[in-house]
User: Fold these one by one.
Assistant:
Number 1:
Amino acid sequence: MIHVRPLHPLFVGEVAGIDTTGDLSAENVRAIRAAADRYAVLVFRNQRLTDEQQLTFSHSFGELEETRGTGISKPGEQRLHPAFADVSNLDKNNRLLARDNRRRLYSLGNMLWHSDSSFKPIPAKYSILSGRVVAPHGGDTEFADMRAAYDALDEATKTECKGLICEHSLIYSREMLGFDDLTEDERATMRPVRQSLVRTHPGSGRKSLYLASHIGTIIGWPVPEARAFIRDLTEHATQPQFVYAHKWQPFDLVMWDNRCTMHRVRRYDNSQARDMRRTTVAGTEMTAEQITSFAATESTDALR
Ligand code: OGA
Ligand code: MN
């Protein structure tokens, strides 16, 4: 039996009564899903997982995304199994990345509010992040409840958002930080995909704003107007009452639902190791129709 204690007035539950390193019963899988539908972010304390155990736990909730083919890491450079997103500040020999290291600069994009894999035609469902070595100062991960943010919009804005489709790409979020030295090959893997601005969660039936720094425009809108509107909605959605800041303890495991939350990492001292390893449960459907040529050639690839 699991027990969930709320950590925030709107969302986020701390789950007790589960050992994520062991076999999960079907009943516990159901209970965790139900808790995720209600709380959107779940915190499991003191989970000393191996990579293998993290993969097994994550796989109980669906197929896993692979990071291969997204971002800028090249095959031989990776520290972790390809089903992991390495969000540490370490290289494959577990040494700190230099300040001007390209992968480090690229990953600073995680400091911008986002939802994982919104740049894929079928975006991610859950992300599961294990804090193996946590930053001694800073490095909190903040989460925003996009259901509550949607509910709090005035009626006119809800009407304006209805039916809108945004374009998401890693190029846009990196551009925001001035990271633009992407190769043509990298850009080719980052072609924009379409996502609905408003989603309805299948588990809770609640609507949410689907925002991310990966958004570059709204289909049919002039770009500056689209970006100004998205910025405005993002400011609304990330007001303090909608945000929970997670202060990491070693071996915390945090699981969040990307369909109804955004998150970002806060600043930390890069002279100290921060070893964070993420697995990602793939989504099962698109939120909007893709332009035909893209959907036909890329959508299955991006899932692997
Ligand atoms: C992620 C991410 C935040 C962090 O793992 O998807 O954005 O705290 N990480 O490292
Ligand atoms: Mn992320």
Number 2:
Amino acid sequence: MPAFQTVRGMRDLLGKDAQIFSNTLAKAQETAFLFGFKEVFTPHVEHLDLLSAKTGDEIRQRMFIFEDLGKRQVALRPEFTASIARLVTSALKNEPKPLKLFSTGTVYRYDEPQKGRYREFWQSNFELIGSDKPEADTEIILLTNKFLQTLGLQNYVFKIGHIGVIKGILSHDGVDEKTQNAILQRMDKKEYDLALKLIDSEKCRTTLQSLINIKSKDWHDTVKQLSVLVAEYEKAKVAVENLAEVITLITSSAEISLNVEPAFARGLEYYTGIIFEVYIPQLEIAIGGGGRYDRLIEAFGGEATAAVGCAHGIDRVVIALQTQNTEYLTNVKLGVMVIPVAESLKVDALKIAQMLRDCGVSVEFELMGRKMGKALEDADKRGLEYAIIVGERELKEGCVVVKDLKKREQTTLLITELVEKLR
Ligand code: AMP
């Protein structure tokens, strides 16, 4: 029988990769703690109706959908926000606002696999429910910045836009919601000509074309040009003011590299306000993104509730870290191997291993009954730093032999001094 392989687009994470992943997820958790987000765990499988309600065609067409044995139409989650909205309209309905919820886990999309694009991938997800204030949008961007900063990542840039500006123009000129979504999907893919073709009104087309043409490195200048463009569009005008307020708050409270792009749109249908993406110019892939979705909770049967959130693509964050070869990755933890010289010393050796573990040292125990030479060779191959050799003569004097596997030196140490030395 041929050897089994993973399903296309799905990966095993092994060795150092697995370690980097779990370290990165731990940093996301640390960020959640620093910003007061509470962790929640939701199922990987949800009702298809819930997942497809507001997500947008882009993702809807790429879901893993199946019927379970009870004939329910279900799907693997393609993102977290729908599950969080479900919680907010049910179990967490009466919780005081703002509600700040954090999750990590895998999500599933039938994307075309390539580097940085998988069908099963990891996200860390943050949702801030119940505030329509620009401070809330700011916190989401600041926490994304903090997360990437604590990982030691460099040269990442925030791209910011506002769906309310585009939607404000389109609805003012009578474009219905379905067409608006189709236009935004095209704009998300930078297919601007196709997007413009969907608009009947010439005035609206001209305004949107002018919006697409606005390109300036200085955000003050971009906002000024936008304000002039939408002077007659009441809702879009309010959106531009909101965009300016959020950017002012962000840039005044942190050192962040930020580009404002008025024609920036995102594939998810539920956005209503600020939207953003973080990317690394050399890599040309987004490592995270998010935005404001003030009408989603209502669409799911809850009370009208403002909300803003983001998701970070952990697989891509890890790729970015690996390309930048950050110190954080090479910071491998100390590990030791405890080897008893003879059968009769197993118990003493196990006790020493336990003592070291109690002090937080990562300890492996020689489990294959190998002779000393082979055991040391194995410890070296495993990348461990020290071998603790437990021999009868040394033990009688309360000592063990400590062999530095990198320097190939060895000393005899009192067991009581061992922890201090390994620290
Ligand atoms: P989204 O949920 O579409 O806003 O995506 C949030 C983040 O998830 C993106 O910025 C990417 O970093 C990551 N992401 C999206 N699709 C994939 C994929 N197919 N494979 C790996 N990461 C992805």
Number 3:
Amino acid sequence: MQITKYFAKDLFKGKTVFVTGGGSGINLGIAKSFAAVGASVAICGRTQERLDGATKELAALGAKTFAKVADVRQMPALQAAIDETKQVLGPIDVLVCGAAGNFVCRAEDLSPNGFRTVVDIDLIGSFHASRAAFTQLKETRGTILFVSAGMAYMPYAFQLHVGAAKAGIESMMKNLALEWGPYGIRSCSIVPGPIEGTEGMKRLADPKEMQERLRHIPMQRMGTADEIGFAAVFLASPMAAYVTGEQLIVDGGSGLSGSALFNIGAEKMLRR
Ligand code: COA
């Protein structure tokens, strides 16, 4: 992987990383980046099949792996996965709260259960993971990384549920930085922009529309899951030892022009 051109191959040797929703997309990109720099990597997700595929990719990078089916909405299953990780790979040094759910829906059409489902997966799921891993993170003086989104600080149309959940995550990220800092635990978030080849992009943008939108992204392209992985490795590394309670935006500048183009594209998707 390209990351080893820039970071030492053994930067995370002897360290354990746990990624929720690590079976695909951005979260798998993050997991692979840590694997490439020597970490042992545990992942959880909702389907065994996805976890199996992801585990092969991680093992191909030389990582010791552990995977367990656990929905972040179910605390007992998640706690079991996190506890077993310690037995198999050692205590968790880096927790990545990446599991998320998303769909485009007008606020007036959003059912209470639709709203609750996204808040449950993103916000409550991230709390569950942080809470479940706390004892291990305290032992390792570890790091929590939350995968956030631009919706946390700017309104995006038809993303009411996601904005509420991600804004909650940003608040929780800062709160944990404040409360758990004295234990040596750092807490930060990453805000990815449009990342190619992900489930999120499939759900949020028409590929043809996206081509047009790229012209309005300062970096003129979508990002890659690997680029989110680079940011995660940096934030969890000793290079960021004095960084906590911070949000790192990795979006090629796409948030600078606001959410209007997204809103127009999403409205077209909803009309179809
Ligand atoms: N528009 C409006 N409401 C929707 C919807 C959509 N496109 N998709 C789901 N919902 C509503 C459902 O109607 C249901 O509400 P109801 O009981 O009032 O009808 C509620 O959301 C829960 O849906 P359900 O399919 O039972 O939830 P789930 O737990 O099986 O799936 C989701 C979770 C909804 C987030 C699903 O989209 C998912 O699994 N996504 C995969 C991960 C993902 O989104 N990744 C991208 C992250 S950026």
